[in-house]
Q: What sequence folds into this?
């Protein structure tokens, strides 16, 4: 398997087909064997039914279905664990990202030393309050961790870099930091545009965007600052 695409799904029945068709159209430009792994995160609508119908028509579609809603980090963790591709991509199911940007990420991962490529949103279509909350969260995280990454669910990873990653609840925004702690190579950002959401609603609000992230931030800070350091001079 060359490429795995992980797509968390929670109550996205209106946009699943749009997302699926967009990815398949983009990948028709590639001569690569791929799989689309949809993680049904306890959806209460017809998302799972639609996914099963897609699977009947396309053997590249794989489905992992949770018994209830566990959140995006759990969905990503399950996808990382079961992905077979040498390159692992992530994208939301709400069609706010252009699937052609996945091809740009794949190209960047061909460069020597680049293990992770993150989409950096240069245009945001969420409401004013959510945009402010997101900007505050990113600023706090980068200030405390001395980093410069923007959180984005559009990303690409080399499998060798992600296979041993240990995630924690609500830690998806800290994935670049956790990978660096593990000794991951170069992390690169590319500019991407966010499109207006046509269907459904955002799963994030002030509570889970700021408060939960603030609590986890200092745990990650402790992990980053307390990595083991030693230099072996001799082994007898």
A:
């Amino acid at each position: 398997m060359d490429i795995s695409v992980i797509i968390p799904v929670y109550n996205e029945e209106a946009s699943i087909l749009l997302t699926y068709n967009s990815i398949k159209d983009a990948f028709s430009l590639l001569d690569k064997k791929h799989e689309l792994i949809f993680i049904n995160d306890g959806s209460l609508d017809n998302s799972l039914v639609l996914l099963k119908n897609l699977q009947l028509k396309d053997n590249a579609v794989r489905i992992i279905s949770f018994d209830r809603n566990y959140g995006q980090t759990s969905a990503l963790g399950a996808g990382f664990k079961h992905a077979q591709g040498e390159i692992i991509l992530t994208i939301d199911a709400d069609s706010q990202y252009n699937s052609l940007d996945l091809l740009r990420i794949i190209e960047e991962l061909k460069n020597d030393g680049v293990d992770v490529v993150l989409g950096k949103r240069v245009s945001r279509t969420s409401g004013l309050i959510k945009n402010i909350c997101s900007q505050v969260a990113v600023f706090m995280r980068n200030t405390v961790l001395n980093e410069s990454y923007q959180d984005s669910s559009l990303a690409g990873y080399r499998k060798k870099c992600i296979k041993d990653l240990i995630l924690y609840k609500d830690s998806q925004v800290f994935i670049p930091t956790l990978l660096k702690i593990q000794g991951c190579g170069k992390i690169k950002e590319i500019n991407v545009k966010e499109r207006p959401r046509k269907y459904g609603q955002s799963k994030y609000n002030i509570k889970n965007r700021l408060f939960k992230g603030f609590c986890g931030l200092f745990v990650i800070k402790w992990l980053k600052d307390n990595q083991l350091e030693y230099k072996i001079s001799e082994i007898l």
User: Anything to note?
Assistant: Helices lie at 16-27, 47-57, 72-82, 100-109, 128-145, 159-162, 175-181, 206-225.
